[in-house]
Write a structure and sequence with these properties.
By secondary structure, the chain is α+β, with helices and mostly antiparallel strands. It is 34% helix and 26% strand. The strands form 4 sheets. The chain has an 8-stranded antiparallel β-sheet, sandwiched between helices. A 4-stranded antiparallel β-sheet has the order 4-7-5-6, with helices on both faces. Strand 11 and strand 12 form a beta hairpin. Helix 3 packs parallel to helix 4, helix 5 crosses helix 6 and helix 6 packs across helix 11. The termini are far apart.
C-alpha cells in the first residue's frame, strides 16, 4: 500500500501523537498546514490570507495531497470546504456546512423537519437600539438565551433574565462580535445563500427560548449519504451554573432516549445534505417533560472527546475524520479500549478576574499522572497571566486545567478526579469576585 499524504490544519504535537496511533497510520504521513497559533488560542482570524497561504503550500507540495483534515471549530471548520474544493480532496459542500454552522440558517432548516425538537428563536442585530423590542415582537420573552450567529465554544453566550441583563450582553456582544463576524462573512460571500438568510450575516445574533436538561453530544459521520451516529457523550455541568464540569463517555442516558436522538440525527443530517464528513450534535433531554431538544450542530469531531474514545473504544475518533477525508468508510472500533468509562474534567475557578501567581509544576503534574494511570493533565494558564486574557472561555468561569481520566465505573471516575483535584495547587492575586 502506498503512503498517503494527509495535511492537518493547525496540527500541534499533541494531535500528531494521537493521529499516529489511529488504524492504518503506518501508511500515512501527516503534515501541518497553517500554524496552530493562528487558529487556536487567538481571537484574530485573517481567514482570506490563511486560505491563500494554505493553498500555496499545498499546491507546491512535491507529491499527491490525499486528504485535508481539521479538528477545530471556527475558523478551521469553515475553511475546510473552501480549501478542499481548491485542492480537489473530499469534503462536504460549503452550503451544507453552513446549514449547520450559521445558527439562524440551521434553525430554519431544522424547523422544516423537526419543529417539535427545537426552541422558539429569532435573529437580531445587537447594534439595533430597538433589538429587545423586536425580539418581543417575534414572540420571544424573557428569560431567553442570546449568542452570536456564529460563535466559538461558549464565548459571548448569555442568559437574559431582565432588560439589564440584555443591556450588559449587548454591550459585550457589540464589543466582541467583530472578531468572528468579519472572517465568517468572508466565508458567507462564497456560498449560495437563500433570501431568508442573506441579510442575517455574522454580525447578527440569536435569541432562543431557554432549553435545558441532561445535555449530551451525538458523535457521527456521513459516508456517501449514509448517516452513522457512533457514540454519545454526556456533558455534565457544575450545579447552578452554565459551566461544564466534565464530559463522560459512554452516555448514561436511557436506551430509548439515545435511540431517539440517533434517529433525529439521521433525519436532520440527511435533510441538510451533509456528506462525507464528521459532525456532532448537542442535545438536551428534559427528563421532567420527557422532551428532547436539539441545541446545535458542529461540523467536526469534538477534540475534547478524542481521548475518551481512545480510552473506551481503543482509538481516537480522529480515525473517522481521516478515513472520510481519504474517501473511505471509517474503521472505528467499539469498546476495545482499556477502560469502561472515561471523562474530561474542567478544573475551574469562578472569579470575574484574577492574576495567576502559581501553577502546578511539571514535576507535580507528572506525579499526579503516575498516581492515576492513564490520566492526562494539560494546564491552560501560566504564572503571571491575567484570567481575562484567556481565549474561548464561557461568560461565568475560567478553566485552569483539563484532566482526562479513565476508570471501571462512574463512581471511581469521579472519586479519582476529586482526589486529583485536591492536589492541583494554583494561587491567585488581584482577585475580582
Amino acid at each position: 500500500m502506498s503512503v498517503r499524504n494527509i495535511f492537518v490544519v493547525g496540527m500541534d504535537d499533541y494531535n500528531r501523537q494521537r493521529l499516529e496511533h489511529i488504524r492504518g497510520a503506518e501508511h500515512y504521513r501527516f503534515y501541518g498546514v497553517i500554524e496552530p497559533s493562528e487558529v487556536n488560542d487567538t481571537e484574530i482570524f485573517p481567514i482570506e490570507d490563511m486560505l491563500a497561504r494554505a493553498e500555496t503550500q499545498l499546491k507546491a507540495f512535491n507529491g499527491p495531497v490525499d486528504a485535508i483534515v481539521g479538528y477545530m471549530d471556527f475558523p478551521v471548520s469553515t475553511m475546510l470546504p473552501l480549501l478542499c474544493e481548491r485542492i480537489g480532496t473530499p469534503s462536504t459542500s460549503l452550503e451544507s456546512l453552513l446549514k449547520c454552522e450559521h445558527k439562524y440558517w440551521s434553525r430554519l432548516v431544522q424547523r422544516e423537519v423537526m419543529a417539535d425538537y427545537i426552541p422558539r428563536f429569532t435573529a437580531f442585530d445587537p447594534f439595533d437600539p430597538d433589538a429587545l423590542q423586536r425580539i418581543g415582537d417575534a414572540g420571544l420573552y424573557m428569560p431567553f438565551f442570546v449568542k452570536p450567529i456564529k460563535s466559538s465554544g461558549s464565548r459571548l453566550g448569555f442568559r437574559i433574565e431582565s432588560p439589564e441583563d440584555f443591556a450588559y450582553a449587548v454591550e459585550r456582544l457589540c464589543d466582541g462580535i467583530g472578531t468572528i463576524s468579519e472572517p465568517f462573512n468572508y466565508v458567507l460571500e462564497h456560498a449560495n445563500l437563500p433570501d431568508s438568510v442573506r441579510s442575517v450575516d455574522g454580525g447578527h445574533c440569536m435569541a432562543e427560548e431557554i432549553i435545558g436538561g441532561w445535555q449530551c453530544t451525538v458523535e457521527g459521520y456521513v459516508f456517501q449519504g449514509d448517516v452513522v451516529p457512533y457514540g454519545i457523550v454526556d456533558s455534565i455541568r457544575y450545579p447552578q451554573v452554565l459551566s461544564f464540569f466534565y464530559y463522560r463517555y459512554p452516555s448514561r442516558l436511557p436506551d430509548a432516549i439515545q435511540a431517539k436522538m440517533q434517529d433525529l440525527t439521521r433525519q436532520i443530517m440527511a435533510h441538510i445534505g451533509y456528506d462525507n464528513a464528521a459532525f456532532n450534535i448537542e442535545y438536551f433531554w428534559d427528563e421532567v417533560q420527557d422532551r428532547i431538544w436539539l441545541l446545535e450542530i458542529n461540523t467536526r469531531v469534538a477534540q475534547s472527546h478524542c481521548d475518551l474514545f481512545e480510552k473506551v473504544d481503543g482509538v481516537s475518533h480522529q480515525q473517522v475524520t481521516v478515513d472520510l477525508a481519504l474517501g473511505q468508510r471509517p474503521d472505528m472500533p467499539h469498546r476495545q479500549g482499556a477502560y469502561k468509562v472515561a471523562g474530561k474534567f474542567f478544573y475551574r475557578v469562578f472569579f470575574s478576574d484574577a492574576t495567576v501567581s502559581r501553577v502546578p509544576s511539571a514535576e507535580e503534574i507528572e506525579t499526579l499522572q503516575q498516581a492515576f494511570p492513564g490520566t492526562v493533565i494539560t494546564l491552560q494558564v501560566e504564572a503571571g497571566m491575567r484570567l481575562s486574557f484567556l481565549p474561548e472561555q464561557d461568560s461565568y468561569s475560567y478553566a485552569l486545567a483539563y484532566v482526562w481520566m479513565g476508570a471501571d465505573d462512574d463512581l471511581a471516575l469521579e472519586d479519582n478526579y476529586a482526589h486529583l483535584a485536591e492536589q492541583l495547587h494554583f494561587a491567585f492575586e488581584d482577585i475580582t469576585s
